[in-house]
Amino acid sequence: MHTMSIFSDPERPNTSKKRTRRLVNGKPIYTGELSGLKYYDYGFASRFFKKDTVLTFIREHKNPYDFFAIAVWYKTWKIGYVPKNQNEILANMLDQDIQLEIRVKSVDERWDGYGCGLEVEIVLSM
After folding, report:
1. What is the torsional sign of CA 30, 41, 54, 56?
2. Which of 6, 25, 58, 63 is the S-S candidate for 69 at Cβ 3.0 to 4.6 Å?
3. Rounded distance, CA 21 to CA 115, Å?
4. Which residues on neighbouring strands pair with residue 33, listed in sequence order?
5. Would you say 62 and 37 are in contact if contact means Cβ atoms under 8 Å apart?
């Protein structure tokens, strides 16, 4: 499940059934999976993950495949990326020095290299 804050146009009434969230310190603005886990160090690093383990963002401005790329690291291990279809708003927030925190929400210990074995939560941390 993915959730992302939606900023609606004030001139147009919001007729969608989607709920919007205000940015509140400590409240999730994204909950979902990471992409690319099998291509990086997730298989090794995941043995250290527990709920609420804090991870690190690195904004990759020069990534040739994704202008809004946000790599996710644990200590010295790159474990994956915020999915391309979810990263534009988060990348813009990071570019504006808005403080965000990413942490582990759940880990699937039976991960076999396919699908997603990790769910994360991104929160505003001012």
Report:
1. negative
2. 63
3. 28
4. 119
5. no
Mean pLDDT of 69-76: 96
Place of tokens 């808005």: 98
DSSP, residue by residue, 76-109: TEEEEE--TTT-HHHHHHHHTT--EEEEEEEE-T
Q: What predicted TM-score, i.e. pTM, was given to this entire model?
A: 0.75
| 108 close to 56: Cβ distance less than 8 angstroms | no
Q: Whole-angstrom Cα distance, residue 54 to residue 38?
A: 20
Examine the pLDDT at 22 and tell me if it is beyond 90: no
Tokens describing residue 44: 């090794």
